[in-house]
Amino acid sequence: MRDVLDQLLAWWREGHPVGMGTVVATFRSAPRPPGAAMLVGPGAEGAPPVAVGSVSGGCVEGAVFDLASEVATTGRPVLERYGISDDDAFAVGLTCGGILDVFVERVDRAGFPDLDEVAADIAAGRPVAVATVVEHPDEAVVGRRLVVRPESPAPARPALAGARMDDAVTDDALGLLAGGLSETLTYGPDGERRGEGCRVFVSSFAPRPRMLVFGAIDFAAATARVGSFLGYRVTVCDARPVFATATRFPDADEVVTDWPHRYLAAEADAGRIDARTVVCVLTHDPKFDVPVLDLALRLDLAYVGAMGSRRTHDDRLARLRETGVPDDSLARLRSPIGLDLGARTPEETAISIAAEIVSARWGGSGESLTTTDGRIHHQGVARPLRYPP
């Protein structure tokens, strides 16, 4: 929903009912992840309805458009599964062989009265999750929502199918929110954890993960650009004020003049980094590199990489061992940074770094898909996180 939120909120504020299809589960090589959404809303005066967003990259958009148009009128939510038909290869389905479960619902002020509050949380970077019942024996329960925020009080009255379900979904949604994951959960009709018959989709809106780039060099500018494209909140930090300027790094969210290790320590103490944070040390200067890597390798971070030649890497490892960094922590260091793409320019090097970060996140091998078998899309592993207060 994040990608279509601005348009959804605009139609919601204008009082228009909107049909929204959301991917709530995927199987095999589905092209879009859970949470991908498509809206069907009013066109200009006298014009037909328009679609915003995508649930499949084109394979089943037409079918979802028709269904969302109908649901926007009737208000009756529908959970629909799309996949290849064994009987008719030209039936509505995914040519990639994947399967999508798409929940189609009407969104308006009456059905989602606190959409503006959820949108405000997302815009401010505050973690929030929306849990929606997508399947239940009682049709009246389908489509009910529960908004979950860390450390927020439980609703005064049951929002889903009773207090027991509210409690179970809240606990599970907080776990998914901490990992930045969106997922469909299964319960019994009254919220029994080991039961069946009820499915709840939890859409998590966690703050953007952070990328900390240390070293205000030309490679940092390209890395900041790619990091921003990948959805990271990018900070470039360097102790030299002549180089650490916003003009040189227009794609960074912030440029900080400080010693790298001092800045990283302050951010860690303030709780502003977490297990999704990636650190790229690009200075290849021991007086900057060693202190910040000494700290970074002791923190629970998603990725720590450092630029430099293999000779620089060997010298860096020796210096880090002298500071007391244990071998198991040193094994986490990606150095020389990036995948072997033969990169030479700053832009090519930034792609190499980004590819290694993506590979580390999802468990990819970094090999050409032509030479591999099995799944193309990896599932990744959820990691518990702590959010700042």
From TrEMBL:
<dbReference type="InterPro" id="IPR027051">
    <property type="entry name" value="XdhC_Rossmann_dom"/>
</dbReference>
<dbReference type="Pfam" id="PF13478">
    <property type="entry name" value="XdhC_C"/>
</dbReference>
<dbReference type="Pfam" id="PF02625">
    <property type="entry name" value="XdhC_CoxI"/>
</dbReference>
<protein>
    <submittedName>
        <fullName>XdhC family protein</fullName>
    </submittedName>
</protein>
<feature type="domain" description="XdhC- CoxI">
    <location>
        <begin position="122"/>
        <end position="188"/>
    </location>
</feature>
<feature type="domain" description="XdhC Rossmann">
    <location>
        <begin position="211"/>
        <end position="357"/>
    </location>
</feature>
<feature type="domain" description="XdhC- CoxI">
    <location>
        <begin position="11"/>
        <end position="83"/>
    </location>
</feature>
<dbReference type="InterPro" id="IPR052698">
    <property type="entry name" value="MoCofactor_Util/Proc"/>
</dbReference>
<dbReference type="InterPro" id="IPR003777">
    <property type="entry name" value="XdhC_CoxI"/>
</dbReference>
